[in-house]
C-alpha cells in the first residue's frame, strides 16, 4: 500500500472488537472505511473516532437476514461509497453449546452470519475488484476452524466453511490482482464473550486472551503483505502440524482445552 490509500475498506463487524481494531489500523493509514453492524450506537461512536484519521461511513445492517437484503444493501454500499479495495468479513457471534442442545434455527443463523453473508459481501465487491485488477478480501475465521472444540459444532464448522470459501476464491480468481486471505484468531478479549453461554469459557481462558489490536494489525498487515493465512498468535499453526501427524492427539488436546469440565466433556452443559 504505497502512499495514501484511496480505495475504501468495507468492514463488517467494524463497530467492536477485532473489526474495530482493523478499522482503526486502516483509518490510521489514511484509508476511508465503511463499517457494517446492527447497532447504531456503537457504529456512530466508532465512526466519530475513525473520522479523526479518514472518512468513515457507519451502516446499520443485520447480516443474519436471509431474504436477499444483505447482498442488495452491500452492493448498494459498494456502488455509493466505493470503489471497495478491501473487504474484511469480520462480523459474528459465538456459541458454546453441546451439539444435542443446539437449536437448529440458531445454527442456521450462525451460518448465515459466518458464511452466507461473507459470500454475499464477496459477490457485491469482487466483480468491481476484478474489473479494476486490484483488491483484497480478508475473512476473519478462527483457530477453532482447525480443530472442532467442545461446544463449537456449529461455530467451528461455519468458520471452517469460511476458510475453504477463501481458498476456493483464491483458486478461482487469484492471480488477477485480487488477494484472498484468512485470519485465524485464537482467544481475543472482546465483547464476543459477553454472551451468557460463552461466560464459562471466558472464565477459564481469560489469562490466555490477547488484545483485539493484535488481530486488527494482522488484518491490516495481510493487505500490505498478502498471504493465504495468518494465525494470531502464530503458535496456533502447530495445530496444522499436529493434525497431519496425529488427528486423534489433536482431538484429545483440543477437547481437554475447550471442555468446561469432566461432566461437560461427556456432553452435558457446565
Ligand atoms: N473474540 C474471540 O476470541 C474470537 C476468536 C476467533 C474468531 N473471532 C471472530 O472474530 C470476529 C469478530 O469478533 P469479536 O471478537 O471482535 O466480537 P465483537 O467484539 O462482539 O464484535 C462483533 C461485531 O460483529 C457485529 N455483528 C454481530 N452480529 C451481527 C449481525 N447479525 N449483523 C451485523 N453485524 C453483526 C457486532 O455489532 P452488532 O452487535 O451491533 O451487530 C460487532 O461489530 C467474529 O467473526 C468472531 O467469530 C473472535
UniProtKB/TrEMBL annotation:
Checking Pfam families in the record gives: adh_short
Q: Does the keyword Oxidoreductase apply?
A: yes
> Residues of the signal sequence?
none
Span of domain Ketoreductase:
7-191
Q: Which UniProt keywords apply?
A: Oxidoreductase
The record's similarity note reads: Belongs to the short-chain dehydrogenases/reductases (SDR) family.
Annotated protein name in UniProt: SDR family NAD(P)-dependent oxidoreductase
Which organism is the protein's source?
Streptomyces hazeniae
Upper taxonomic classification of the species? Bacteria, Bacillati, Actinomycetota, Actinomycetes, Kitasatosporales
Amino acid at each position: 500500500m504505497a502512499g495514501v490509500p484511496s480505495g475504501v475498506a468495507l468492514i463488517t463487524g467494524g463497530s467492536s472488537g477485532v473489526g474495530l481494531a482493523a478499522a482503526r489500523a486502516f483509518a490510521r493509514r489514511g484509508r476511508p472505511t465503511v463499517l457494517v453492524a446492527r447497532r447504531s450506537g456503537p457504529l456512530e461512536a466508532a465512526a466519530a473516532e475513525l473520522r479523526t484519521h479518514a472518512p468513515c461511513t457507519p451502516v446499520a445492517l443485520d447480516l443474519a437476514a436471509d431474504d436477499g437484503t444483505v447482498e442488495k444493501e452491500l452492493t448498494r454500499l459498494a456502488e455509493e461509497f466505493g470503489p471497495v479495495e478491501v473487504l474484511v468479513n469480520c462480523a459474528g457471534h459465538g456459541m458454546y453449546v453441546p451439539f444435542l442442545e443446539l437449536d437448529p434455527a440458531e445454527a442456521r443463523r450462525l451460518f448465515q452470519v459466518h458464511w452466507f453473508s461473507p459470500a454475499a459481501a464477496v459477490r457485491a465487491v469482487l466483480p468491481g475488484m476484478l474489473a479494476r485488477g486490484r483488491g483484497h478480501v480478508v475473512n476473519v475465521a478462527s483457530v477453532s476452524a482447525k480443530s472442532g472444540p467442545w461446544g463449537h459444532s456449529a461455530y467451528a464448522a461455519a468458520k471452517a466453511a469460511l476458510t475453504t470459501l477463501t481458498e476456493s476464491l483464491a483458486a478461482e480468481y487469484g492471480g488477477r490482482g485480487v488477494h484472498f486471505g484468512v485470519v485465524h484468531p485464537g482467544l481475543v478479549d472482546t465483547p464476543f464473550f459477553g454472551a451468557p453461554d460463552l461466560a464459562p469459557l471466558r472464565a477459564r481462558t481469560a489469562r490466555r486472551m490477547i488484545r483485539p489490536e493484535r488481530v486488527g494489525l494482522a488484518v491490516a498487515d495481510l493487505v500490505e503483505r498478502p498471504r493465504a493465512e495468518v494465525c494470531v498468535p502464530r503458535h496456533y499453526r502447530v495445530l496444522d502440524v499436529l493434525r497431519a501427524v496425529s488427528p486423534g492427539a489433536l482431538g484429545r488436546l483440543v477437547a481437554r482445552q475447550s471442555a468446561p469440565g469432566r461432566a461437560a466433556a461427556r456432553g452435558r452443559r457446565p
